[in-house]
Amino acid sequence: MASLQYSLFILLLAGIAIHTEGRRIVGGQPAPIEKYPSIVQVNALSILNTWVESCGANILTTRYILSAAHCFSGFLYAPSRRRVRAGSAVLHEGGMIVYIEKEFVHPNWGRLGHDGDIAVVRLRTPLIYSPVIQPATIISQGFKIPDNTPVVNAGWGAIYSDGPTSDILLDTTVYTVNNQRCSEIYLNGPRPTQDIVTENMICVNVPGGGNGTCQGDSGGPLYYENIIVGIVSWAENCATETFPGVNAAVSSYTDWIVATAV
């Protein structure tokens, strides 16, 4: 764990801080926005013409955010039907609202299961930094986080599978799972041809289950000591002991993220 701490630095490239190395939080606890000032709510315009919680995202710069590709693609997606709310821990209240200009999904998205589930999104107008609106620090290209490392998910998603979303920001500690073991679990699961775990993913859970991400947390962060190492992507059900939650590994895409968010 020491190597993670010793290698921390901030690279001021394209205004993005880098560390050198479809899901409310289940079993979480309330978290003030000051604790995670880089997280934002992603709202979608519903067919009833109301804004609903869709996903989470993470501030890269005043004009760019980082999220999951599946939050900004698909048959019903259009930039005009997405907006973000920054600087508030309360769902649909307070903070600063900014609309979407254009999305850049990773070119590998859609080729193999959930691989490449990451997107850089440009905002129409810039965010205004404050104590509750700050850029994230992301992990460097190629870093592999060790197994059984404590990490943190945060978001406003469902409190149980297909349940209601949280009215406030929640966080919970989970632990990284061996990638090969995670792959074997899903290969023996109910959808082995769809739920494919690749080297570009980070699996997490807790012994006994009961803590993790759920619907509406997609696109949100997986933190190691406030460094974003993963983006919430997918899972079989929510926070189960059997099936780990799966995140896109940011370190597989850091160079692309930096090159895109300029």
TrEMBL record:
Record Gene3D superfamilies: Trypsin-like serine proteases
Gene Ontology terms: biological process: proteolysis
Superkingdom classification of source: Eukaryota
All copies of domain Peptidase S1, residue ranges: 25-262
Any one GO molecular function term: serine-type endopeptidase activity
Signal peptide (residue range): 1-22
Pfam families noted in UniProt: Trypsin (PF00089)
SUPFAM superfamilies: Trypsin-like serine proteases
UniProt keyword annotations, A-Z: Disulfide bond, Hydrolase, Protease, Serine protease, Signal
InterPro entries in UniProt: Peptidase_S1 (IPR050430), Peptidase_S1_PA (IPR009003), Peptidase_S1_PA_chymotrypsin (IPR043504), Peptidase_S1A (IPR001314), Trypsin_dom (IPR001254), TRYPSIN_HIS (IPR018114), TRYPSIN_SER (IPR033116)
PANTHER family membership: AT26814P-RELATED, POLYSERASE-RELATED
Family statement drawn from the similarity comment of this UniProt entry: Belongs to the peptidase S1 family.
Protein name: Trypsin, alkaline C
Organism annotation: Papilio xuthus
